[in-house]
Structures are given as C-alpha cells and as structure tokens.
Automatic annotation (TrEMBL):
This is Orotidine 5'-phosphate decarboxylase. The gene is pyrF. InterPro entries: Aldolase_TIM, OMPdecase, OMPdecase_AS, OMPdecase_bac, OMPdeCOase_dom, RibuloseP-bd_barrel. Its EC number is 4.1.1.23. It comes from Bombella mellum. It holds the Pfam family OMPdecase.
Amino acid sequence: MSLHRTRLIAALDTPSYDQASHWASELEGRVDAIKLGLEFTYACGLDAVKKLSARQELFLDLKLHDIPNTVASGLKALTPIHPALMTIHALGGPEMISRSRAVLEESFREQAKRPRLLAVTVLTSMSEKCLAEVGINATPLEEVVRLGRMAIRAGADGLVCSAHELVALREALGDGPELIVPGIRPAGSSTDDQKRIMTPSQAAQAGADWIVVGRPITRAENPAAAAQAIQDELRAVTA
Ligand SMILES: O=C(O)c1cc(=O)[nH]c(=O)n1[C@@H]1O[C@H](COP(=O)(O)O)[C@@H](O)[C@H]1O
C-alpha cells in the first residue's frame, strides 16, 4: 500500500452562518477542504453554501437517498454550487448511483471539474448490533465491502466508510476509488455518537485519502490549533 498524503476536511456543522464563516476563515490554509452538510444547508440555504465555499474546496454532504430520478434531478439542481465532493447513500442501489454519475457527467463539459460522487456505505455511527436492528445481518466490514463493490461498479468515484474498513476496501477495489473517512477522533477526545472510530494517524496509515473531522475541531478551545495538530499528526505518518 502506498502511503500518500491524507487530506483533512473540517465538518462545519452548525445552523449559524456567522459561526460557520468564522470557522472557515480561522481554518483557511489549515484544512484542505470544508464540509457543509444537512444542518448548515437546511438552516442557511444554498446561497449561503455557495458564499461560504467561495474561497475553499467544498464537500457538500447532503447524503441523497431516494428513487433514481429524484436523486439525479436533485444532484443536477446542486451543480451550480460546484462542490468538489458530493454524497449519496449506497443503499439507494445501482440505478440510483449510475444515474447520479450520468447527470454529473452531462452537467460538466470538463470532466476534471466535475464533482466527485461519493457513496456513503455504512454510517460510522452504526455498530453490528445497529445493523441487525435495521435487518442487515452482517458485520459492518462485510456490509461496507459489499456495498462498496456495488457502488464503485455502478459509477461512484469514491466511498465514505470508517477507517476500520480501509484495508479491506483497498484489497477489494485497488487504489482507484477515493476513500473518505469520518469517525475520526484524536487520542483522548470524546467519541460522541460515533461507533467505528480511529485516530488521524491510524486512518492515514490504513490508506484514507481524506479524513473528515467535526467536533474535535469545532468544539476545541482553539479550532485552528486543533486542526494544525491533526495536520501535524497526518504529516508525521508520511514523513
Ligand atoms: O458523510 C459523512 O461525512 C459522514 C458519514 C458517516 O458515516 N459518518 C459521519 O460522521 N459523517 C459526517 O462526518 C462528520 C463527523 O463529525 P464529527 O463526529 O463531529 O467529527 C459529520 O458531519 C457527519 O455528518
């Protein structure tokens, strides 16, 4: 496995434009991208998403999951925002994924500028017990690899998974798919609602392309210093 630089995405989860804007400026140059998701987008709207992401690479994490036509049309409506990364749920199935990929390809003449389509496999807040409660009798690892193979075959550019599944996904799918990893907790920090967690350096060693970190940065006394400490930890892995 090649050890490449793992990039850091800060999840700016807040309903307040001023708070998100403050974090974005504080973190500029210290993180590789910002993530705006359901909380910020529902509270502040898409114009605010566009404005806030004007200066930084954007992961727009809206985790679409509906019938193929609705998801593909929803993604098309989001293309003027021009995120670098967008999410849909792998559980929507292969037709939903392939139509999503097709609509993004049609919307961007230059494919290099097309947002990368990420399929969320098994949420990092879910354990084996929780999977059983929704009727899936498999370990998170088995389910992530199964969904991951299907999603990449159907046209996803990458997958959202926990760090625990990285090695198995690389073995199954090679270096091609972009692997994005939330559920990251620096040593000693609170796990919150996350179940399948690892530290930044463990995720980097296991081959994450990007790690997503929210509360350990945004709830730190000094978010910029917290982000810098994570970058230092990531760099130490590849040094
Ligand atoms: O798609 C995601 O980004 C995502 C998928 C997943 O399985 N688990 C997960 O935590 N996330 C997101 O990653 C961020 C993690 O935030 P913290 O737990 O505060 O670090 C949140 O914004 C979640 O919405």
